[in-house]
TrEMBL record:
It comes from Roseovarius faecimaris. Keywords: Acyltransferase, Lipoyl, Transferase, Tricarboxylic acid cycle. Forms a 24-polypeptide structural core with octahedral symmetry. Part of the 2-oxoglutarate dehydrogenase (OGDH) complex composed of E1 (2-oxoglutarate dehydrogenase), E2 (dihydrolipoamide succinyltransferase) and E3 (dihydrolipoamide dehydrogenase); the complex contains multiple copies of the three enzymatic components (E1, E2 and E3). The keyword Acyltransferase applies. Residues 2-77, 104-179 form the Lipoyl-binding domain. Residues 216-253 form the Peripheral subunit-binding (PSBD) domain. This is Dihydrolipoyllysine-residue succinyltransferase component of 2-oxoglutarate dehydrogenase complex. E2 component of the 2-oxoglutarate dehydrogenase (OGDH) complex which catalyzes the second step in the conversion of 2-oxoglutarate to succinyl-CoA and CO(2). SUPFAM superfamilies: CoA-dependent acyltransferases, Peripheral subunit-binding domain of 2-oxo acid dehydrogenase complex, Single hybrid motif. Its cofactor is (R)-lipoate. It holds the Pfam family Biotin_lipoyl. Pathway: Amino-acid degradation; L-lysine degradation via saccharopine pathway; glutaryl-CoA from L-lysine: step 6/6.
Length: 511
């Protein structure tokens, strides 16, 4: 009897994948649930297990092939698979046991994303004893990057909550237990993939296998190594023939993190003595994971990059006049307001073409030049600063840019941005002017080498053609990594942005 191996569900809005690696070849003995191949999408990496024991038959989709959901990958001839030993799965904690059989099913922590190993339970939407429909949201988890909603794997009743609000849980850990529905049986549904949580941005550099190594590491492990800054020789593989898997990278990263530092960093200054009366009026709140990540990344940026800021100012008269002239027609045709951000995005794209080092990044002893612009637009939210990325902004029109900014800004305020939407930026624009800031020095968003700070537009006296006139002026600030960007390049970039904004016709003429 021949059994078909098909492409599983890949996640919301994901319709196709690429076959990255086959672990078996025709004629190999296969055990039930043994990994047959690995698929890669633009958001996640999916491992495909064997649906039953048997012998590997025909491979229909070779490595590198693009396949759609439910497409045929291969066939397995069902039969005696003695000698087919299941691949050893990585050891898990006690709380990560597989779902129990019978009339109950475990609610597990979903995959949280590459390099994300734990999360905090922020909110339970259901309590013990509540009836739950299939795919109904049970709880929300908070990681240092995104919020993840956990749906019910099937219909039933919530019988036990194992991780309460505020508890820290590991990826794959058990959150709760559900009992069966009216028919007394629960069939565990396929766990949905979290949207975009495992995406790796275009242009990231993967760590190559160690010299002399014949076994190809898992693509997901390569991505995890790239994000963790680990080389292949720092990770001990536990997969077949020593193949490095995602779990191996997580263990190696944890070992590096727990290793004693070569030189102790200065301890944080102790708090000043507080009187009992003042202490009673204080409120102590634990930092969210997002806030902790923001603090760590900004400090790392200061410690790593040779950061310097240069300033200029721009007369906004022409941009404001052009915007006022066409804003009504723009809304009618495109359904979105014409703001200043599209002008600044276009101006920055124009300047980045002339000064490409501002759009590059350092990778070890290499400089990686990006022949595209993924523009990060910093946005303040109730939970902290996030930077959604507009991909390929260099090929977008004003209307497309404004639509992207509006859509991602709304998702950021609602806390619905996925990790994929905040990765891969090559340059960032931060608009402190919306809060009334007149001047600031923005901090780099690593590994980027440049960030432009916009500020408040203010009427100031300027000398124009020998006369003093009031003009709407804005200070611009470019913070850049002096290791890769020279002062001349930084000043040239700002001047090109200034020229394009003071005479927007230059953008149309590519001057």
């Amino acid at each position: 009897m021949s059994i078909e191996v098909r492409v599983p569900t890949l996640g919301e809005s994901v319709t196709e994948a690429t076959v990255a690696t086959w672990f078996k070849k025709p004629g190999d003995a296969v055990a039930a649930d043994e990994m047959l191949c690995e698929l890669e999408t633009d958001k996640v990496t999916v491992e495909v297990p064997a649906p039953a024991a048997g012998v590997m038959g025909e491979i229909v989709a070779a490595e590198g092939s693009t396949v759609g959901v439910d497409a045929l990958l291969a066939t397995i001839s069902e039969g005696d698979s003695a000698g087919a030993e299941p691949a050893k799965a990585p050891q898990k904690d006690a709380d990560e046991a597989p779902a129990s059989s019978g009339a109950s099913v475990d609610v597990m922590v979903p995959t949280l994303g590459e390099s994300v190993t734990e999360a905090t339970v922020s909110t339970w939407f259901k309590k013990v004893g509540d009836s739950v429909a299939a795919d109904e949201m049970l709880c929300e988890l908070e990681t240092d990057k995104v919020s993840v909603e956990v749906p019910a794997p099937s219909a039933g009743t919530l019988t036990e909550i194992l991780a309460g609000e505020g508890d820290t849980v590991k990826a794959g850990g058990k959150l709760a237990v559900m009992s069966g529905g009216a028919d007394g049986a629960v069939e565990p549904a396929e766990r949905p993939q979290p949207e975009g949580n495992e995406a790796v941005a275009d242009g990231e550099q993967y760590t190559p296998p160690a010299a002399g190594k014949d076994v190809e590491d898992a693509p997901s492990a390569k991505k995890a190594m790239a994000e963790a800054g680990l080389s292949a020789d720092q990770v001990q593989g536990s997969g077949r023939d020593g193949r490095v898997m995602k779990e191996d990278v997580a263990k190696a990263a944890a070992a590096v993190a727990n290793a004693p530092a070569p030189a102790a960093a200065p301890a944080q200054a102790p708090r000043a003595p507080v009187s009992a009366d003042d202490a009673a009026r204080e409120e102590r709140v634990k930092m969210t994971r997002l806030r902790q990540t923001i603090a760590r990344r900004l400090k790392d940026s200061q410690n790593t990059a040779a950061m310097l800021t240069t300033y200029n100012e721009v007369d906004m008269t022409e941009v404001m006049a052009l915007r006022n002239q066409y804003k009504d027609e723009f809304v009618k045709k495109h359904g979105v307001k014409l703001g200043f951000m599209s002008f600044f995005t276009k101006a920055c794209v124009h300047a980045l073409k002339e000064v490409p080092e501002v759009n590059a990044e350092i990778d070890g002893t290499d400089i990686v030049y990006k022949n595209f612009v993924h523009m990060g637009i910093a946005a303040g939210t109730p939970t902290g600063l996030v930077v959604p990325v507009i991909r390929d902004a260099d090929s977008m029109s004003f209307a497309e840019i404004e639509k992207q900014i509006a859509e991602k800004g709304a998702r950021a305020r609602d806390g619905k941005l996925s990790m994929a939407e905040m990765q891969g930026g090559t340059f960032t624009i931060s608009n402190g002017g919306v809060y009334g800031s007149l001047m600031s020095s923005p901090i780099l968003n690593p590994p980027q080498s440049g960030i432009l700070g916009m500020h408040k537009i203010q009427q100031r006296p300027m000398v124009v053609n020998g006369e003093i006139v009031a003009r709407p002026m804005m200070y611009l600030a470019l913070s850049y990594d002096h290791r890769i960007v020279d002062g001349k390049g930084a000043v040239t970039f700002l001047v090109r942005v200034k020229d394009a904004l003071e005479d927007p016709r230059r953008l149309l003429m590519d001057l």
